[in-house]
Amino acid sequence: MTLEAGKEVRVQEFRHSGECSLEVTFSDGHVQKVDFEPFLRQAHPELKKYLNEKEFARVSVEHGNLVWSDYAMCFPIEALYTGKLMTAESELLKVAEEPEIYGSKTNDKNS
After folding, report:
1. Residue (of 72, 61, 71, 62) closest to 22 by Cα position
2. Per residue in 74-95, pLDDT tens?
3. Structural domains for the chain
4. End-to-end CA, the chain
5. pLDDT tens digits for range 4-35
6. Rounded to an integer, what distance in angstroms lies between the CA atom of residue 87 and that of residue 79?
7. Rg of the chain's alpha carbons, rounded to an integer?
8. Phi then psi dihedrals of residue 51, to 5 deg
9. Angle subtended at Cα 53 by Cα 44 and Cα 60, rounded to the nearest 5 degrees
């Protein structure tokens, strides 16, 4: 299921459905199970702490989105709505794959 263009959808509530999984209910009534483990296994080392069940459980809903540790980790609503956090078109991956467009020049050998 995809989001309807121009329609505002928010996270209404969630419940834990596994170690790193949530069942998310949206304001339009859509319910989606989201498995965060694949994302977390490939995430920046600072986010890997959320693979720990106690850390992962510190999630809350703020301003219609899922948030961990004062926005240390949050996701686009569309990614949560579809349950696809790791798609090739995802901005989440573009940060890692194309750091130069985000101002990072970690691989610049001419410096």
Report:
1. 61
2. 999 999 999 998 755 445 544 4
3. 11-102 (3.30.2020.10)
4. 46
5. 777 899 999 999 998 899 999 999 999 999 99
6. 9
7. 15
8. -70, -20
9. 80
